[in-house]
Amino acid sequence: MTAPTPESAISEAAVLDIRQRHAEATPATMECRAWHDTGSLLALIDDLRARLAAAEGREASLEKRRDYYRERMEAAEALATTATARVAELEGALKPFAREADEWHEDVPDDYRILCAEPGAETANHGAESVFTIGDLRRARALSEGGSNG
């Protein structure tokens, strides 16, 4: 419940005064209709205060949920920013392999492994095949062009 303002403190005092006079009065000492109306109004005040307290409780709960989802959204936005940067970095790393794929004729099978030679060597040694295939290069090209291949 919210802290009382000077206006609500005055009204609280007035309500307490009315409660006291109503408790001391009876239909015999007070006009019967006024006594019942005052009792009804006091019951209404109690009901409204209970509803206000419940609404304030729901508001606090909603504020907690809002804060929780705001934190989750901020974390998701940070993750998306990081992921976007990482994707751009990986796409850049694919470009040399995509360019290499362009150097190979389309008739070369995807499972062909390129022979590698050490710098300065005139021929490749037996078993000097690359760990990647022409198909790997072609997939890199497809991905760097925004598509998918395999």
Written account of the structure:
With 150 residues, the protein is mainly alpha-helical. It folds into two domains: 1-89; 104-150, no CATH class. The protein contains three helices and two strands, in the order ααββα. The protein has helices at residues 6-24, 32-102, 134-144; strands spanning 113-115, 129-133. The chain has a two-stranded antiparallel ribbon. Helix 2 crosses helix 3 (134-144). The chain is rod-shaped. The two termini are 61 Å apart.
Summarize the structure.
This protein is mainly alpha-helical.
Please describe the topology of this protein.
Elements: H1 6-24, H2 32-102, E1 113-115, E2 129-133, H3 134-144
Helix pairs in contact: 1-2, 2-3
Would you list the SSEs in sequence order as H and E? Answer: HHEEH
Classify the beta-strand content into a percent band: 5-15%
Oligomer: single chain
Largest sheet: 2 strands, antiparallel
Mean pLDDT across every amino acid position = 83
Sum up the overall morphology in one term.
rod-shaped
Strand order of the largest sheet: 1-2
| Count of helical stretches | 3
The poorly predicted ranges are none
Question: How many domain modules?
Answer: 2
Structural class: mainly alpha
In whole angstroms, the N-to-C terminal distance is: 61 Å
**Counted beta strands:** 2
The whole-angstrom Rg is 40 Å
Helix fraction, binned, reads 55-70%
